[in-house]
């Protein structure tokens, strides 16, 4: 039996805080298409079930396009059973207007619900602050079967109440779980639960911002002979990259651009890139992040440049400088200001004195 474990699609997420409006609109459609591509691939590979472990949608208000697209994908693939467990971002908008659920869509509630499919038992519960750890004590599974458990929340050794749905891994050990399918964390992670089973976050299908860099996808499960084999499958249409480029000691824009070009030359043009400039740089160095973004904007789907360099300013270099620049630097360095603010003033002031601002 084959199953897909996926979660955290966050369909209809606005993403306008990290992308321009038109790009955000385009990415919303791309992520929706990634979901339908996954279902199509599942059909081609004779997958029996898809475990949707929470946060399929991003908010209470969802577009008719997203809702209808997901429903159509379910209805058009009756040979696949979809197990849908709501996460903290799901708020019933997907199901509210349905007179009846499709036969191949199974849902969960605040208590444990178990479905039997072939030799596999699929058990899940929707957690809240009030129920998270208490409900774990009421989980009882058949020792002789293959048991997959679905949850959405923050796994920790001893649980926690700092976040909705935080739960204790300790309470799930030695409960006959073969695979604990989790949602909530947006990066793939898999670890042993106990001598019998493993727990795994599949991560999200697509990165939405630069806090979700790297390969994204789903986990393919193969259940047979009393065991569950799990394999992470990269599936995102675009990958997000954050690249640190140390430009210490570089003085002219062309040198900086060549260093950046070397750092990003292996990244596919279809991907999204955040370049972080690091190192210690002279206040007199040419460094224009706006120009760098303009220079590379046609090379990638989306590109952002962030300047995290530090100013290489030595007070001794300006102690006896009788120029206006020397006086300016001494005044700023002597001022009672945070270091970051001093650096910003020095950077702008020295460029202005050089006639560049």
Question: Structural class per helix/strand content?
Answer: alpha/beta
Largest β sheet strand count, sense and barrel closure: 6 strands, mixed
What is the terminal-to-terminal distance? 66 Å
Q: Give the helix proportion (percent range).
A: 10-25%
Which strand order does the major sheet show?
Answer: 4-3-2-1-13-14
Rg value: 26 Å
User: How do the helices and strands follow one another from N- to C-terminus?
Assistant: EHEHEEEEHEEEEEEEEEHEEHEEHH
Number of E-state strands: 19
Q: Give the mean pLDDT.
A: 89
How much of the sequence lies in strands comes to 25-35%
| Coarse morphology | elongated
List the helices and strands and how they pair.
Layout (H helix, E strand, L loop, with lengths): L1 E5 L14 H24 L4 E5 L10 H12 L5 E5 L19 E3 L5 E5 L2 E5 L7 H5 L9 E7 L2 E2 L10 E2 L10 E5 L5 E4 L5 E4 L15 E8 L2 E8 L5 E7 L6 H12 L7 E7 L1 E2 L7 H8 L5 E6 L2 E2 L12 H11 L4 H15 L4
Parallel strand pairs: 1-2, 2-3, 3-4, 6-7, 7-10, 8-9, 10-12, 15-16, 16-18, 17-19
Antiparallel strand pairs: 1-13, 5-6, 11-12, 13-14
Helix pairs in contact: 1-2, 6-7
